[in-house]
């Protein structure tokens, strides 16, 4: 990411206290800068494109619910953006109410849809007759308790009582204690950073048509180069029923020979390929690459071909 100065701004899904804010707190370049809370991923990315922010932190994948469709669709339709980093935040939830409200009085719950889905087992066991009002964020759900009386309780992040005068009725209500949300930091298009050996590359690609076997042909671009995919999800393009684009995360960097060669093959195959960026993997894990897919294997193969063209003996 380009160097920052003290007046620069970083956008994130607000208000203060969200998991997105916790992800932004992991970015050294954001320390001491202006942090701008926004209402959704599209607004955050628009801040970047229109120059209001240096970069935006947005959620892109959850270990329970998979890809965040709003983020994927925004990245597919807003050109000029580049992912420059990813960050992982453990996710758990608490149930909060206005002070003095007992659990027995809770009939309606305000919650972000993703958080609501991740707490379904606890809610079914403890509040089987509850109703749900969707919220724009986990913190906004708690804040709404003081804006109106439509809901009796809210699902919110741990630590919410530091921001609002709420009572915590229950902790650790998430169905999966190992739940993690993956966030990405997005800036305007910039040169690709050097590879670290533990990198990830994100792309979006479309199939040329809906003939049988086209998806397999696309996947073969990666399989035949030894490139593993850590994520593949389909999203409707929107121009016709049955037309989809694919959001793909690859293990490796665009400067890795196997990844570069796979992307060249994909570009010849697909009518539209969007390169979202190569960046260090948050978990720091290096992909296992067998010998025939290492950089040297691709380089030696090209040298061999040049030698044949030049009339050198084929040893």
Textual characterization of the structure:
- With 315 residues, the chain is α/β, with parallel strands linked by helices.
- It folds into three domains: 1-89 and 181-190, D-Maltodextrin-Binding Protein, domain 2 (3-Layer(aba) Sandwich); 94-170, 3-Layer(aba) Sandwich (D-Maltodextrin-Binding Protein, domain 2), CATH 3.40.190.10; 192-315, ACT domain (Alpha-Beta Plaits), CATH 3.30.70.260.
- 26% of the residues lie in helices and 29% in strands.
- The protein has helices at 19-24, 41-49, 69-77, 113-118, 120-126, 138-143, 214-223, 257-269, 295-310, and strands at residues 9-13, 34-38, 55-62, 66-67, 81-90, 94-97, 108-111, 131-134, 153-156, 167-170, 180-188, 199-206, 229-236, 244-251, 273-280.
- The longest helix has 16 residues, at 295-310.
- The protein is elongated and about 85 Å long.
